[in-house]
Amino acid sequence: MIRREFLMLFPAAAAVSLASRMAWAAGGDAAVWTPAEFHAARRFADLKQGKIAYVERGSGPVALFLHGYPLNGYQWRGPMAALAGERRCLAPDLMGLGYTDVAADADLSPEAQTAMVVALLDHLKIDDVDIVANDSSTGIAQLMAAYHPQRVRSMLLTNGDVDTNSPPAKLMPFLEKARRGEGRLWFDKSLADNAWARSRDAIGNAYHAPERLLTHELIETYFRPLVAPEKRRKQVEEYGLDMFPNPLLAVREQLRAFAKPVRMVWGRDDDLFPVETAYWLDRTFPGSRGVRVVENARLFFPEEYPELVIEEARKLWT
């Protein structure tokens, strides 16, 4: 099955409930958005790239939250709630994903996504940001640091694309199916059968305890905008295919010159993005604040363990 090739098996369920973690994450400062509240908060920026969806909450220096594939800005609801008292938290939906609407033939490559993010910051009159990124957006964050270092104050990077592992080797079987137009069927099946979506063959493999997180509402929030109209079905596949050629190999020297604070927080049980790649970043960035390895954590652990993101962000920003 497609997702068995996309992600590997997940470990046993965590002892602490997700509800408890999310309540802790909010820290009493603000409520974590429900899907309905996320939809109500959505705004759009009309850019040359298209109609870019984003949400924001809080005030102060801007923290830019960049989501993974195939998610959207709702991935960061926990950290945004907790950190809104100290940062203006901004979470856009990348092109081809979420609720952003771009032309059918839009360039969805990491370089194009980076240009869109910079255009959004210009549109919102934001000079610089603290970046928090996951999955493919960890690669986009590095391109921001390489090509627009003056716009980046710090980076908190979690499991994602690094150097030669972009796109990750274990994603290739899924991308081959996407090339044949078969990747979209995985999203159809996830929406039609939520129990399957939580399974080892589906997005559940990206979480330590998917049965606690992946509610019907959450699955709908992530996948419903990806299945219609037809251009969206194609774009959710093109997002992965447009990762070629790997853009990170060309920016090694720029990354070595980026001396601002960078911190890596990495889930150990993610076979797409192994911990060794986090240590490559640690050796590469002169301003690295080191690597924190998270046990019993997979690709999308920032959503499942928001308290870790909150803790590490506060330390980095201090």
Pick out its properties.
alpha/beta, signal, about 40% helix, AB_hydrolase_1, Rossmann fold, AB_hydrolase_fold, 9 strands, about 15% strand, globular, disordered N terminus, about 325 residues, single chain
Provide structural commentary.
It is a single chain. The radius of gyration is 18 Å and the shape is globular. 41% of the residues lie in helices and 17% in strands. Strands 1, 2, 3, 4, 5, 6, 7, 8 and 9 form a nine-stranded mixed sheet that branches. Helix 4 (77-83) crosses helix 16 (306-317) and helix 5 packs across helix 6. It is α/β, with parallel strands linked by helices. The protein has helices at residues 2-6, 18-26, 35-41, 77-83, 110-123, 136-147, 172-179, 184-192, 194-197, 210-213, 216-223, 230-241, 252-256, 275-284, 301-304, 306-317; strands spanning 43-47, 50-57, 62-66, 88-92, 101-102, 129-135, 152-160, 262-267, 288-294. The model is unreliable at 1-28 (pLDDT under 50). It has one domain (2-317): 3-Layer(aba) Sandwich (Rossmann fold), CATH 3.40.50. It starts with a helix and ends with a helix.
Topology at a glance:
Blueprint: H1 2-6, H2 18-26, H3 35-41, E1 43-47, E2 50-57, E3 62-66, H4 77-83, E4 88-92, E5 101-102, H5 110-123, E6 129-135, H6 136-147, E7 152-160, H7 172-179, H8 184-192, H9 194-197, H10 210-213, H11 216-223, H12 230-241, H13 252-256, E8 262-267, H14 275-284, E9 288-294, H15 301-304, H16 306-317
Parallel strand pairs: 3-4, 3-6, 6-7, 7-8, 8-9
Antiparallel strand pairs: 1-2, 2-4, 2-5
Helix pairs in contact: 4-16, 5-6
